[in-house]
Amino acid sequence: LQTITLNGPISATGNIELWYTVKLNTGANNITATKSSGPVINLNSTVSDQTVASTATLNVQNGSTLTVNSGTGDSIRVGTATLTDAEARGAFITETGATVDLENDFEVVNVNSTVTMNGANWFVRDDWDNSGGGTVDPGTSTVTLDGVDATAPNAVDTGGQPFYNLTVNNTATDDNIVFTPDAIDINGTLTLTDGELELNTNDPNLTLGGNVTIAATNPTITFGSGTITFDGNGVITDNKVMTWTAPATVSAPSGSASYSQGTALTFSNLTIGTSATNGIWNTKGFSLTATTFAIN
């Protein structure tokens, strides 16, 4: 049997290990998995004598919800690092309209693993770990980092793969989000509601392709020496009125980009355009301040 379709709610206590294709069918046909420690859902088994070179696939379809509750470790692990690449790749597909709610880590551990997110809504309370370097296609999905009880910083390792929409609403005791040196590329919107982005740890480069909204009270960005590039048409609404101290560049492959902000905006180092691309910044009558300012 190569494909299993689940048409009713599934509740499991313990590990769920998949070697073939499982489809979570349309509608209120949800999986809830609970275990005291992870990984709760393994896409490809870690059994050492497995020799079937198949891709275990979990497909969460439109209208269905996957909820994984675990005390420690991974909520979902895609791929297996202990087997050969062909045996360990794993695939995770979420369709538009699906919801994934993970209490702990999401981990991709194999370079041949694939994650296809389409337009699904993801909620991750702990780490986003693509240290295995798998391929992540964000589609038009939204990932919300919504830690509520972490006592250590949440870690994000993109593996060089992009997000579409990223929301940070981390209300945990330690509400910091720490990134590895891999570049952070957000093709859609960045929304900061609560928590702190630690860009001064590992100094990753950040590329923003759409709107940026920063709430007035709780969120914080701690800038490092990594660069910030605005490469799309976006509106920055910085209600916190911070000073953006990282080197920032406005550029667009198509030749122009338009940016505006709903409040006063301050940069320590802002460049409009590069030698290869033009850049446009539209302040729409609002205050724009830069200690070092260059127009190319």
What does this protein look like?
This protein is mainly beta and 296 residues long. The chain has one helix at 85-88, and strands at 3-6, 10-13, 16-18, 21-24, 31-37, 41-43, 57-60, 65-72, 74-78, 91-94, 99-102, 105-108, 114-116, 121-124, 128-129, 135-137, 142-145, 154-157, 165-169, 176-179, 184-186, 190-194, 196-198, 206-208, 212-214, 220-222, 228-230, 234-238, 243-244, 248-250, 259-261, 265-272, 288-295. It has an eleven-stranded parallel β-sheet, with no helix packed on it. Strands 3-6-9-12-15-18-20-23-26 form a nine-stranded parallel β-sheet, with no helix packed on it. Strands 21, 24, 27, 29, 30, 32 and 33 form a seven-stranded parallel β-sheet that branches. The radius of gyration is 20 Å and the shape is globular. It starts with a strand and ends with a strand. 44% of the residues are buried. The model is unreliable at 34-40 and 44-54 (pLDDT under 50).
Number of strands: 33
Low-confidence stretches: 34-40, 44-54
Q: Quick one: biggest sheet? A: 11 strands, parallel
Radius of gyration equals 20 Å
- In the sheet with the most strands, the strands line up as 2-5-8-11-14-17-19-22-25-28-31
- Beginning-to-end CA distance, first to last residue: 61 Å
> Treating each run of at least 4 consecutive H or I residues as one helix, how many helices?
1
In helices, the fraction of residues equals under 10%
Q: What oligomeric arrangement do these chains adopt?
A: single chain
Strand proportion, as a percent range, falls in: over 45%
Which structural class do the helices and strands define? mainly beta
* Shape field: globular
Mean pLDDT: 76
